[in-house]
Amino acid sequence: MQLSRHDLSQLDEAYLAGLQEPSLRALSLKLLADLKEAHERLAQDPSNSSRPPSSRAPWEAAQAGEEQGKTLAQSAEAGDGQEATPPEPGVESESDAPSDAGEARRPGRRPGAPGHGRTQCLAVHAERHHHPPGCAICGRSLSAAAETRTASAHYVIDLIPPGPGRTGLEAIQVKQVYHAHRCGCGHWTQAEPAEGGEEADWTVRLSERHLAGPMLVALICALSLRMRLSRRRIREFLADWLGLSLSAASINQCLHEAGRAVAPVVEEQLLAEVRASDLLHADETSWKEHGKLLWLWVFTSATTTVFMIGRRSQELLHSVLGSVLHGWLMSDGYWAYRDYDNRLRCLTHLLRKARGLEESLEAEARGFGRALRGCIEAVMAAVYAAREGPPPKGLRAQHAEALNALLALCLQHAEAKHAKTRALARELLNDWDTFWVVLDHPELPLTNNAAERALRHWVIARRISYGTRNSQGSRAFTALASVIDTCHQRGLSPWEYIAEVLRHRRQGNPAPALPAAATV
Ligand SMILES: [Zn+2]
């Protein structure tokens, strides 16, 4: 929008009557552009909005309407970072909710509770003055404006991170002052804090009006996602070590805003890089979103990691990976992966299951487990040897006989009485070729450890936080987790990058791309 509410409030019939033709023409163009934009916005719904298709996860489609109503009612500023589910017995609750909060606790301020305003009285370290660049009506420069006045002011608390010659963190408070100037044409134009435009499914705003500056938001992200602190603990840390009094709701708003800021980086850039990688590891683990069972998915290559929270479904896989993958995909046996060519399966998983069968009380299971273990161990040993020595010749042919014998055994056990034997035989048959690809490509990994390792940190986070509270929280969480892990893989500081992205996005600009690798 070119004209602000403040500009429009000054326009009326008498005002227009007093304008010269060039000014009137310039103003008409602005009004026309704004009117067109307003019409387009009115006609916008999630099915035709400008968001890229990849940024809308398929599982959100059904619940979008319901979420919209709910979030409008409870407002983005409400503290919704904590699960209200009662803690498991014997586990210390990290929730902000009092123990008698009950299941139906709504997020946000209790009636009668004190508000979440700024309670501390930090000294003002600096003032920053903002002036309008030109007249909103006639476009004339305002540097020599006849009249000026202060239009608005607010405070931003930010951090000066450690740098050359300085250690430790320093919190500073900056007073941001916005001025209005009166042009020769008579119009008052005022500078205003920048805001990111609306984006579907996000209720948290990207705004320079927010109390926490970009580096403080980045620190809160580090405390929450990397140090896995609850909102309550973050609050305690900020108060004890920086003298800052931020409410749990403000902390939650920072996390959601940072998540929203980096989401396009993940949903556009990182997803595309994951799809284009030569070798991708995928895995999933259960996740709770407001008590609902979902899955935390990870897709990780040598240089990029993307997390998603959603259903365990083919739709989700397609939304992340697309319908065709050119590189290798290492995954577990979930059926939806079978749509992809060039798949690999983790041999150590299979080995574990084979060992399990060997310990069975059923003779049939023991026999099958032993045969399977022998076969896998032989294949793994051959692959290790091939990686050390000269390029192997005919590794597949060397093992053909043993594999054929195992295949016959699987067919024979596909209807076995013993449930685990039957299940394992069928799992092998379903994915038969994918287990033995390493015989043709010994350079490929034997295990899915990379994906399991990528999930481990967040599995502990899940235990502490009991999952996420709503779809916005889940999306913010996975966007930040993806950026943090990818930065670490590339030798970059996730915190400086998150602060940088937030700075751009609060000004309504696109997020800078995540660099390929550290430059120093
Ligand atoms: Zn003017």
Largest sheet report: 5 strands, mixed
User: On the 0-100 scale, what is the average pLDDT?
Assistant: 84
Number of continuous helical runs? 16
Structural class: alpha/beta
Spatial extent as radius of gyration? 29 Å
Order of strands across the biggest sheet?
7-6-5-8-9
Shape: elongated
Low-confidence stretches: 50-103, 114-119
Helical fraction: 40-55%
Number of strands: 9
H/E order of the elements? HHHHEEEEHHHEEEHEEHHHHHHHH
How far is it from the N-terminal to the C-terminal residue, by CA? Answer: 40 Å
Q: Give the cofactors and ligands.
A: zinc ion
Strand content: 5-15%
What does this structure look like?
- The chain is of the alpha/beta class and 520 residues long.
- Among the domains are: 118-193, no CATH class; 347-439, no CATH class.
- It contains 16 helices and nine strands.
- It has helices at 5-9, 13-17, 21-42, 58-74, 214-226, 231-242, 248-275, 314-321, 347-358, 363-388, 395-413, 419-430, 432-435, 449-465, 471-489, 494-506, and strands at residues 126-130, 147-160, 170-182, 188-190, 279-289, 292-300, 305-310, 328-331, 343-345.
- A five-stranded mixed sheet has the order 7-6-5-8-9. Strands 1, 2, 3 and 4 form a four-stranded mixed sheet that branches.
- A hairpin with a 5-residue loop joins strand 3 and strand 4.
- Helix 6 (231-242) crosses helix 7, helix 7 crosses helix 16 (494-506) and helix 11 (395-413) crosses helix 12.
- The longest helix has 28 residues, at 248-275.
- The structure holds zinc ion (ZN).
- Zinc ion binds at residues 135, 137-138, 140, 183, 185, 187.
